[in-house]
Design goal:
4 helices, 86 residues, mainly alpha
Length: 86
């Protein structure tokens, strides 16, 4: 499977999840707000993915994880939810 096929599979998967969210909104009024919000979020993700916003994200994420391991302040914020003084 080539890179383009993987991309197309991922987009189709996300589109199906988005369609499922719409069905949930229609069938379960008590979850309609959450389902519509999920549909909106998935639509944004699909658009960003199609536009290539994900390219290079793995490299950036790896750098952030390395930085987090070196930064006690960052680790403390993650552990207790506090924010470092600016």
């Amino acid at each position: 499977m080539g890179r383009r096929d993987e991309r197309d599979d991922l987009i189709a998967y996300l589109e199906q999840r988005r369609d499922n969210a719409e069905l949930m909104a229609l069938r379960s009024p008590e979850f309609a707000d959450q389902a519509r919000e999920r549909k909106r979020q998935l639509s944004v993700m699909i658009d960003e993915f199609r536009e290539g916003h994900h390219e290079g994200a793995a490299m950036v994420r790896a750098a952030l994880v390395r930085w987090a391991g070196e930064s006690n302040t960052f680790n403390q914020e993650i552990d207790d939810g506090s924010q470092a003084a600016a």
